[in-house]
Amino acid sequence: MTRFILLGAPGAGxxxxxxxxxxxxxxxxISTGDILREAVSQGTPLGVKAQGYMDRGExxxxxxxxxxxxxxLSRPDAHIGxxxxxxxxxxxxxxxxxxxxxxxxQVYDHAINFEVPDxxxxxxxxxxxxxxxTEEVIRRRLQVYREQTAPLIDFYSSRNKLATINGNSSVExxxxxxxxxx
Length: 182
Ligand code: AMP
Prior knowledge:
By secondary structure, the chain is an alpha/beta fold. The protein has helices at residues 14-25, 32-42, 45-56, 62-73, 91-103, 118-128, 135-149, 151-157, 171-181, and strands at 2-8, 29-31, 81-85, 110-115, 162-166.
């Protein structure tokens, strides 16, 4: 059973690696960013509520992502494993996740933190051309990461659940390191 949480700043390469790993292991790749972007593009009530926060580089309110994760992890395909990408993003969400997993009788293996220097993160984000990848929004997203998401490194480390990998190398090299770890 493979269940991993991918941690790291925006632009750290979590999404790319999560897709590869999910395909190799035949398990769902659950990205709250992808789910929210889809909701925005379809104009669903969730998308309408989330869009402004996403455009500014802020986190959307916890309750929105908590509800969607509860629903997603309870689906049958998630019983065989999953890779979480972009959730949790703060201590409230991480605490919720631990409670939810206890409730639905699932256990995760590790939270894997991707380490990448700031200047590399900015270059990567500017290069991918997403709507929320303008310089101002990127700066805000990095600030939000440092203030709200980086504390999760201690959260998982204090539970002996943290693994760290160097995300500052080629996609293939990071995949190889990740495969050894999982
Ligand atoms: P990502 O694709 O993971 O970089 O997410 C894109 C945007 O979606 C973020 O900048 C947030 O606005 C929003 N988002 C994604 N995941 C979360 C989450 N777990 N909590 C709050 N906001 C999120």
